[in-house]
Amino acid sequence: MRKQIVAGNWKMNKNFQESTQLANELVNKVGDVSLDNTRVIVAPTFVNLSGVISATTGSNVEVAAQNMHQAKSGAYTGEISAEMLTSLGLKTVILGHSERREYFGETDAILAEKVNAALENKLEAIFCFGEVLEDRKSNNHFNIVESQIKKGLFHLEASAWNNIVLAYEPVWAIGTGETASPEQAQEMHAFIRKIVANKYNQEIANNVSILYGGSVKPSNAKEIFSKEDVDGGLIGGAALNSEDFIALVKSF
Ligand code: PGA
Predict the structure, then answer these.
(1) How far, in Å, CA of 157 to CA of 84, rounded?
(2) Is 235's C-beta closer than 6 angstroms to any atom of ligand 1?
(3) How far is the CA of 206 from the centre of ligand 1 (A)?
(4) Of all residues in the chain, what percent carry a pLDDT higher than 70?
(5) Which residue among 15, 74, 142, 233 is least packed, with the fewest CB closer than 10 Å?
(6) pTM, whole model, 2 decimals?
(7) Does the Cβ of 185 fall within 6 Å of ligand 1?
(8) Distance CA 110, CA 151 (A)
C-alpha cells in the first residue's frame, strides 16, 4: 500500500542553529503522533543537513536534500553530488521543484539526468512538477503535467518506480496563499495516476505516492489530504514552524 507523506521543504530559510532547533522540536512533538502509514520528511538546505541529521537520528523524522547535481563529481563549483548526499546517510532528494526550474534553468532533460543519478545512488526522488497560471487558464494544465512527467520519468524501468514519489505543485499556488481546491487536486492526481498506469501498469500507479504542494496549511490540509488520490503534501511556508507542521502531520 502506498505511504502517506508530509514533507517540509525549508527552501533557503533558517541558519544552522535554527534548523537544528526546528528539527529538535519536530522530533519531540512527532513522538506523540501515531505514524502508522505516514512518513514525515524535512528538507533543510545543504549546509544544514548534517545538523538536522544528527538531531533526527533514531526518530521518525526523515531528512531529504532539496536538490543535487546530475554529474558524479568534477569541476562543478558550488554543486553537490548524489554520492555526497548518500555519504551523509540521506535516502531522499527533492528534484525539479518549480523554483529550480524557473530560477536555475533546470530543464526536463536535466531533470531526467538528475533522476537517473539519484536512482543510481539509491536515492529516492521526490519529483516535482506543475503548471503555471496561464496554462491553467488556457486549460493546458493536463498537457503540461503529462509532458513534465513523461520527459522526467517515463524513460525509467518499472522497477525504478519503487524509489519515486510524485509531487504535483501548481506554480500559481506556491507561496501565494492560493491553494488548488481539493477537487482540483484530486482531478489532477487521478489524471497522473492514470497516465502512470497507462505507461506502466495499475499496480505501479496504485503504489506511487502523489503529494500535493502549494499553500498547504493546517486550515486546509485535512480536506485536501482526504481526497482519494492525494497521498500527502510537500509543504513550504507551513513547514517552517513545528506547530503548523505537526498539525499537518496530524491532519491525516
Ligand atoms: P508553499 O510551498 O507551501 O509555501 O506554498 C510549497 C512548495 O514550494 O513546496
Answers:
(1) 25
(2) yes
(3) 25
(4) 100
(5) 74
(6) 0.97
(7) no
(8) 10
